[in-house]
Write a structure and sequence with these properties.
Blueprint (H helix, E strand, L loop, with lengths): L1 H21 L6 E2 L1 E2 L4 E2 L10 E2 L2 E2 L4 E8 L14 E3 L1 E3 L4 E3 L13 E10 L4 H19 L7 H19 L17 H42 L2 H10 L7 H8 L14 H8 L3 H10 L2 E4 L2 E4 L5 H16 L13 H43 L2 E10 L13 E10 L4 E11 L15 H7 E10 L7 E2 L6 E9 L4 E13 L8 E14 L9 H4 L5
Parallel strand pairs: 1-4
Antiparallel strand pairs: 2-3, 5-9, 6-7, 6-10, 8-9, 10-13, 11-12, 14-15, 14-20, 15-16, 16-18, 17-19, 18-19, 19-20
Helix pairs in contact: 2-3, 2-10, 3-4, 4-10, 9-10
Length: 540
Amino acid sequence: MKQKTVVILMTLLLLCVNIINSQTKKTPLIKIDINTEATATVLLFDQRFKFESFKTEYDSIHFNYEINPDDKKSWHYFNGDSFALRIKKSVGVAVFPEAIKPLHPNVPYQFNFIAFKKIELDDTEQTNLKTETFKLVKSRFANPKNVSNTTVSEFKADLKKIIRKYAKADDFYNSDGTLVNINLPLYESYLYPTIDKLGDLSIEINQRLEPNVLNTIERVFESIDEDASIISKIFTIVNGDIKPSEKLTNILASKVNASAVGNETLTMQDFGSFFFDDFDYNLKAVLKRNYKIVGTTLVPGSKLDKNSIILLESFLNKIVSKNITNDEKNAILTESEITQIKKIRADFSILLEKLMKIELKSAQIDKLSATIPNILNDTFIMDNISIEEAIYMDLTADKNAYIGIDLGLVYAFSLESMFIYEGTNFYFKPVNREALFSDLEGWDEFFKRFSAYIGVAQLITDKPDNFKPLFGKNSLLTGVGWRLNRTFRINTGALMHYEINSNPLIDTQKFKVSPTISLSVDLDIVKALGSVGKILNTTE
């Protein structure tokens, strides 16, 4: 009996080594064809795998996968992942850079290949694309007053038409010969932020800055109306009605503002005597009718002229900051007059600040507008290809995912005896015996390791006096088990047998359940065992 036990233990050990060595550590390869939208081999589950490299005409491909949104999945299921494929440009082959995370069994997945192909435009097409785009941008954003959220949406739609035209979308077909429905998410990610920024800037100018300018203009007139005589006082200073001192003469001969574009040489006397001669008319012409100051004349313009406001602010600044005196060196302006001029000057300063903000925003619009045609020249067309693959296990196949065959050694505590048992273990989820536990996540690992089992056990040590098998040479064994690794399981359960009365004069027996612990080997590859089963056929 001891020799047979040794033989059995050695056989189990050899089986374990054989099973461990037979489990491949190399990442399996799955053949996939994105043109026919199918896999040529069965998808694995619970096990990392790689897709085979494949030929492609695209310049770059981004791959992602997820559980089909229409599938009702358990709360503990984990979704897919995403990464960019590596393209070997010299041979036109797409290579998966890493293994795919394990898939759940019996769950339909959706695989998405987002493929990008560079637009190849000849010189004429590039020129025409830029020209059309510039015209479109100019027509939409040349005047901020005409921009709204609606016009921005219209611009995007018009831009898409140009994109489709130069992307030559009609050249691309699906495997079934139908035209690919090309969406433009990449264009949107490149262009829409720019377009939205253009719209925001235009709307900000139109709805916030321009109204602020109008309010400030009204405030200028209000400040002047508080003491209209101050304008007459200024005119007397610059028109020579006051006998000037040497200091006043120098001030009147100085430049108003040497940095005022187009009016760098204009003197205080020339500007003052011209502009303040008919101040009310001239100021309204500049502030309300978009005239601009050129020397000592007014010229029509298209918008409120910033340089004209600079001249007015600079002129008033010199009037109040130089302590103007007559020839007797007495102050020409009273304190209250200086205060009033300062207030008017401050209004012009605020107006100038708002105009500069508009100018800055307008410059940003021009800069962004110029980038759009260049973005189009360096963008890609996008083709979305999706495949759905539902993984359903065949319970009659060789690799049965739900039921396993066990062979193991059992120790019964109350009998203090060893048994060998053959049984079947039932998992609550499909099991891939090649999968590594480290690849499983969350509750998946529990469901793939825990099982219930039932089998028969045969005594292999000396028979206890009070023990009798339940039927023939066998006793019934049942319990639950836990996979230690891809090969071994440890189990706890109960051995069902008869207990014989220790009194030889009493010929009775009763049903007995003894607690057990066992170590078993998963024999999913039992067909490869050959004649080993004969060695393990213990019937004594």
